Amino acid sequence: MLETLLETLALDMAAVPAALHPVIAEASVARSAAMLADQLWPAGLPDEIGEVERFFWADAARVLGERRDLESFVLLTSLARTVGPAGRLPLQRAHVSRLRTQDEVPEWVTRIAGFRLTSAIVSEDITGDGLSVVLDYDDEQHPHTVVVFIDNNLGAIIKDVFVGPPVDRVLEAYERGGRVTIRTVRPPIAAGIILQALGETRDYDDPPVSEDFEFFTGLLVNRLTQMPERPVRPPIRPLMTPRQREQLVEEFLDSRYAVGLPDDAADIARLWIDHAVDHTVGGPQRVSAVLVELFLAHWLPRKVLADSTYFDAVPVVVKAWLEFAGERTHLPLDAVDEAVDAVDVWQPALEAAAMIDPVGSKPGERVFLDDATNDLEDAYRALAGLGSPPQPDLRGLDNHQAATLSVLAPHAWLMAGETLGTSYAPDAFDIAERLVRDAPELLAKARLSTWPRAIVWLLAHRHRLVGPGETLTPYTLATDLSSSPATLRKTAKLLTDTLILPI
After folding, report:
1. What is this structure's pTM?
2. How far apart are CA 251 and CA 273, in angstroms?
3. Cα separation, 142 vs 153, whole angstroms
């Protein structure tokens, strides 16, 4: 294990200039220590975890303490300054012992994990898409910054962490680029912003982070937890009540920007507000081309099932809203124009999502779906073996039932084919169709996105694909279906208690 750590450390340091060696050594070992913790003591009672960790690092300290090569001394120095309290003491003793007898220790080795945070700045995009927290380590020999980028469009998660140049060069770059606001903050406040965003990131199932995030997160956490001052938690973001949202819609409709808008303007503006408040950070009056993309190309087609009449009204309303919000927030005109132009760029995504009017539907009518509903068209293209889904028979259904079946049956067909195999897709489609036709009252007892998952769960158990000797367990199946066994079991029971299904 130690040889692997030594090899990893050597490879990481070989890829950077000498001026960054103490920083990269700290980052490399902090990452390796975190990975070891995940692999060697990931579960158990706290006392048991600490015992395993203490024994492991005590053995590592003994082995490294007996060696005399510089590479192992660099590793020992890094471990002694980055490993957690449970294993740190024997490593520190071994490091002090070797330091007395180690020959020709380069000066940079003494700087590993010894940098002092001197100042911090926050740079925020004027469109509110994100902010960068810049931690300044103003060391005479190795000045550098640690830059943390927080993405407001994804719930304020950390997307990137990297080591940057000295802070004065970072500030010059921001000033040349423009379109940012810069403020100086106390280090404890910067640490609080970062730690809160890191918590959001770790709550994310599969955060879209950079490779540098993976490499430098251990260094970041190590430095923040060793600060002499306690981090200051950011203020709690104020909630926006339904009444406040409705009031904002009314103010928009009373403005000059709402003149001549379609009848669905209030509904569409409210959807924009709900998306901005509930799924991003920064508030509903944030004007951003990226926010336009997320709303038009991703969230709205998955939230609303509608025909072309309704979706044709969306771009007009969104453009008016952006100009309304841009004026209220005093945003520069070029930023507003950029967001308005983005509406035309992403309008085809709405056109592609418009459904063929189901039997008996009224033009412009829409149905809300669950937020977890996937973009089926993308999935169909990715699963060529399944081909195209069958078209459900909508005759005899009212508008709401027809719209629900148009989404639910293909979704169950797709999920069963992807999870269990193509031969199970038709059965899933049939059960979904029977659910909507024969027991529509059940639909209100679970989220719309839960029903396809419950149908797959039911099929897997009816065909005995789950259990001893099988590749699927209840836990792995539930994980594949992005739900919990209890939820799936309860919802599947509603199906079996109500519908008479073939054996």
Report:
1. 0.71
2. 13
3. 34
The DSSP output letter for 501 is -
* Nearest one of 348, 355, 451, 336 to 394, comparing CA atoms: 355
Whether residue 150 contacts residue 132, with contact meaning beta carbons closer than 8 Å, is answered with yes
Q: How far is CA 229 from the centre of its chain?
A: 29
Cα dihedral 51, 54, 57, 60, rounded to 10, equals -80
Q: In the numeric block, which tokens belong to residue 52?
A: 């395993």
Residue at 367: amino acid letter: V
For residues 253 and 261, give the distance between their C-alpha atoms in angstroms, rounded to a whole number: 9
- The contacts of residue 33 (CB under 8 Å, 6+ apart) are 79, 82, 83, 84, 218
Residue 282 CB burial class (10 angstroms; 0-12, 13-18, ≥19)? buried
* φ, ψ dihedrals at 41, nearest 5°: -140, 60
Contact 227, 191 (CB under 8 A): yes
Are 81 and 112 spatial neighbours (Cβ–Cβ below 8 Å)? yes
Q: Which two tokens stand for residue 208?
A: 């879209």
Q: Which of 267, 290, 301, 302 is closest to 343 using CA atoms?
A: 290
For residue 271, the Cα-to-chain-centroid distance in whole angstroms is: 21
What is d(CA 361, CA 363) in angstroms, rounded to the nearest whole number? 7
8 A C-beta contact, residue 330 and residue 127: no
Q: What is the pLDDT of residues 281-323, one digit of tens each?
A: 999 999 999 999 999 988 888 788 777 788 899 999 999 999 9
Pick the closest to residue 388 from 342, 339, 347, 429 (CA basis): 429
What whole-number distance in Å separates Cα of residue 184 and Cα of residue 366? 47
| d(C-alpha 241, C-alpha 219), whole Å | 39
DSSP H helices in 329-424: 333-353, 376-382, 399-419
* Tokens read off for 250: 């009314």
DSSP character string of 441-491: GGGGGS-TTHHHHHHHHHHHHHTT-BSTTSSB-HHHHHHHTTS-HHHHHHH
Mean pLDDT along residues 169-198 = 92
How many other C-beta atoms lie within 10 A of the C-beta of residue 10? 13
**Residues written for the chain:** 503
45-78 b/e with 16+ CB inside 10 Å = b?
eeeebbeebbebbeebbeebbebeeeebbbbbbb
Residues 390-421 pLDDT 10s? 778 888 887 677 777 877 888 888 888 888 88
